[in-house]
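ugh finaly. both done.
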Amino acid sequence: MASGNNHDNLTAAYIDGSAVIRVEGRGSFKTSPPIKQFIHRAIDAHSATRILLDMSDCIGMDSTFMGVIAGIACYTKSKPGLRFKLINLSEKNQKLLITLGVDRVVDYSLSTTAEEKNLILHLGTDAQPLEPGFPNKLEAAKTSLEAHTTLVDISPENYAKFKSVVEYLQDDVDALNRP
């Protein structure tokens, strides 16, 4: 299940009250919506108590993806008994999180516990593909705007980096909302 030529793949499963998602390729604006949708379904419909993103095969992340991850982390921290964690994060991706301040709100590790390894093994047999992409242009703009607003909210230093992006995306959302 590749999207275009970039081979960004997502696989996910519900295993013993946990939602486990493997990110292969880049964590990007294309992979952000299905991750967000799957996680909200896992919480609302399946009463997941733990959400793990296996990042062992993730070669990079863009700002939209990191903003969505930060938003999910903030959301899950408001839910008692719910844990969200990135596992098997590379040092390169850790540096990306630190650069935008996402490391301040998201739990992560560069390795896994024995229990997390066991869940990842089950992912191979129970996984379903999550198709990257946006349902429509308005949803794409809203997701990207929300992600970048979250990045500014968690780290005011990001305002200078993303001011023009946020303004552009807000204009885009406004234009797409007009009849």
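ok and the 2nd:
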Amino acid sequence: MSGAVELERDFDHTDVPLILRASFRLGIIQAILVLAFSLVSRFLDGSLAFVLQAFIILVGLTATCALPGLWTKARHTEGIAGAAGIGLGATVVFMIADVAILQWIGTYTNRWLEIGGGSNWWYHPVWWMAGTFLAWMGATVLANQAAKGRQPSVVGLMFLALGFTLVAGVLANLVGLPGAAWSLPTFAVAFLPGIALAALFSAIGRRRA
């Protein structure tokens, strides 16, 4: 009986076809958003460019953090690990789209090349690590919400993560960390410690199985 119940569970879905399908979908979403961001960077400037770039980053962070955990219905370690696997798989899909299309159609600016010393390849390892990490932390927050008897909430996840991101970004500027500025890139990078702190904070009061 317990085996039958386990097979019918509606959480922690980590079967390989689901992981592959979800990785493909998320990778395509990321590629479209990167293309949109690069076009805004190339053709727009000023306040309009800033607003659109901030919106694209927010959508991308939300998708990368929330969708994997929602797709696996992460509740425990298995579902969280599956979400991290989707995050990693998505970065591979993006890399293929990037190498096959984005790097060849001239969307990236010279600044992108200058950061990498004349190469477009510098950011792929960063993308692999960040994509996996964000999906892992996002699924952890969603699982912690469910463990507290709440419905997993993307709004709650992002509100918490962005709150800690704001704190991390402000502190980075106040203490004068190298490269920190009151800018969109600084706060985009600050989202990494922000989502990690959100995952830790969300575990407070979690009911142990």
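summary for the 2nd one i guess: Helices lie at 2-7, 16-43, 46-72, 77-100, 110-115, 123-147, 154-174, 184-202.
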